[in-house]
């Protein structure tokens, strides 16, 4: 009986197409299922809101107030907590009266700090002002 042995001229190849397909499917799965955390750099507890608000396409300016009443503009602390210092700092970073500003005040911060921030923003003539809140836990 004669057996046919494979000829040495034929090359054995592994088909990598299905492997590449599986790798791309895994990549797409992980990209779609990933969540991104966009919380503030400061640890502040935001007050709760009863309604949702849509966001603007323009990158807003963040004015943060921590629990001790200290002001931060885009996560940079101001050296003085007086309204004149806040006014000067905001004037240097605001590009126009249509610049959106988001005020993030800690829920346990002094109310006077929030009032001061709102007063300074009003004196600058900024019209796109938002106050950041969190959803109530049900």
Order of helices and strands: HEEEHEHE
- Name the helicity range: 25-40%
Rounded mean pLDDT is 82
Which CATH architecture of the domain at 61-131 would you pick? 2-Layer Sandwich
Unreliable segments of 5+ consecutive residues: none
Number of DSSP-assigned strands: 5
Shape: elongated
What's the alpha carbon Rg, rounded to whole Å? 28 Å
Structural class: alpha/beta
Tally of separate helices: 3
- Tell me the span between the first and last alpha carbons: 81 Å
Q: Which CATH top level class of the domain at 61-131 fits? A: Alpha Beta
Strand order of the largest sheet: 3-2-1-4-5
Strand residue percentage: 5-15%
Largest sheet: 5 strands, mixed
What is the CATH topology assignment of the domain at 61-131?
Nucleotidyltransferase, domain 5
Q: Secondary-structure blueprint of this entry?
A:
Blueprint: H1 17-33, E1 61-65, E2 71-73, E3 76-77, H2 83-93, E4 101-105, H3 111-124, E5 129-131
Parallel strand pairs: 1-4, 4-5
Antiparallel strand pairs: 1-2, 2-3
